[in-house]
Automatic annotation (TrEMBL):
<dbReference type="InterPro" id="IPR013815">
    <property type="entry name" value="ATP_grasp_subdomain_1"/>
</dbReference>
<dbReference type="GO" id="GO:0005524">
    <property type="term" value="F:ATP binding"/>
</dbReference>
<protein>
    <recommendedName>
        <fullName>ATP-grasp domain-containing protein</fullName>
    </recommendedName>
</protein>
<dbReference type="InterPro" id="IPR053191">
    <property type="entry name" value="DcsG_Biosynth_Enzyme"/>
</dbReference>
Amino acid sequence: MLVSTPAPSSASRVPRVGVVVTDSYPLEDLDHDTAPLVAALRARGLDAVPVVWHDPSVDVADFDLLVLRSPWDYPERLAEFTAWLAHAEATTHVLNEPALVRWNLDKHYLAQLASLGVAIVPTTYRSRLDDVARDLAAAPAGTRVVLKPTVSAGARDTGLFDADDPAALALAERVLRAGGVVMVQPEVPELSRGAEKALYLVDGELTHAIGKGALLAPGGGFVGGVYQEHPEPVPTTADEESFARRALAAVGAATDLEVPLYARVDLVDSAEHGIVLIEAELFEPALNLHVAPHVADVVAAAVERRARALTAR
């Protein structure tokens, strides 16, 4: 008598997880996270592989879950990336949630968080060159300003200038000609001294904090001539931790979305402004696992919980 063998239940199926990356990185800004994260996921019994987001040979339907990690070339390919994200969202599960990613792609979100009570660096958003010129002319004598586009990563087209430096207006013109919007901010001296802290939260819980040193040099360039972070673990105060949690709660209020898988809250404690939010990175933050290796398994555990829940449905 033939006895049929039952198919494996979905609960016993090994989840397949794609860790979303790109295909090349500059030497000064390497992806230090994917290898340890993939290894930690595999150690937990998941079928995890890196996935280049723009690789045409990849079928996103092959994955139960895609975890966005380091697709850091997206600013130069924004339309292509957003189309890929929409396709991935329609085909499988993506974390962080694509709705959150789309909200987070444009730094206008900072104004929304400010309206919800999160202190930010004072910012104007300008889509006309003469408005930027008026902002620069209104800056107090002898002060510096920071200009940046609302859509950017790795400090692309970001510069620190004396307010009367013609190079500031030239940068603004370049951003506007590319179709962007310019953010104009006063220099925060503590940032220029390297006091920025990045606080990381996984499933809403603080895991570690990283200092990366000063990045912008006066005149529109980078310290040392190239964009290069120098990450190292740093302590945090109770006030900084409370601020990070409040900022993440405000993100939830603004988007009506659940607590993200991961978040990075960049802040600085300023003598003039108090603790202020520089950026809430909810899309592709470098986790700096090479200097915080214990966090790899924390992230992997959070991914595993979600991946196994998906395959158990």
